[in-house]
Design a protein that fits this description.
The chain has 139 residues and is α+β, with helices and mostly antiparallel strands. It has helices at 57-65, 128-135; strands spanning 7-8, 16-21, 27-30, 36-43, 51-52, 78-80, 89-93, 100-102, 111-119. The strands form two sheets. Strands 1, 2, 4, 6, 7 and 9 form a six-stranded antiparallel sheet that branches. Strands 3-8-5 form a three-stranded antiparallel sheet, with no helix packed on it.
């Protein structure tokens, strides 16, 4: 990813997240706070629609976000799928610089995914207010 070293997030609530999305649930377009985000899909839904990262996010969102200058260059997402029959799929991308979303789950099988957050410096934590906003409680 072009970095000498990456550090896991020091926040006890945010370093690793496991999420379940049921039929119709999704996560709308957003940017992450972490330098890099790695996801690992543990269970794929019946119809595999997944994380969507536009090929050229800067052009697609420039007018909506009214950027005054282009964002910093970012590496393209890296995707690893061990075998076509395996639900395990791992993606690593520059979360804070890349607009992305998770498409709605279709079917009766839930999408179960873990998210790992990495930063270019050690000791990164959410404030208690941010923890309450994201997780409903502070650590």
């Amino acid at each position: 990813m072009g970095k000498d070293r990456l550090y896991t997030m020091a926040d006890k609530l945010a370093a690793v997240n496991a999420m379940t999305y049921r039929e119709g649930e999704a996560l709308n377009w957003h940017f992450d706070r972490s330098e890099f985000t790695t996801t690992l899909l543990l269970q794929a839904p019946d119809r595999r629609r997944r994380l969507r990262i536009p090929h050229r996010p800067a052009q697609r969102f420039r007018s909506q976000l009214r950027w005054r200058r282009p964002p910093a260059a970012r590496p393209r997402p890296r995707v690893c799928n061990p075998s076509p029959s395996s639900p395990a799929r791992s993606t690593c991308f520059a979360g804070k610089n890349t607009a992305h979303r998770v498409t709605p789950v279709q079917g009766n099988t839930n999408r179960i995914i873990t998210v790992f957050s990495f930063f270019d410096r050690p000791g990164v934590v959410f404030t208690p207010e941010e923890q309450i906003g994201f997780y409903g409680r502070a650590a």
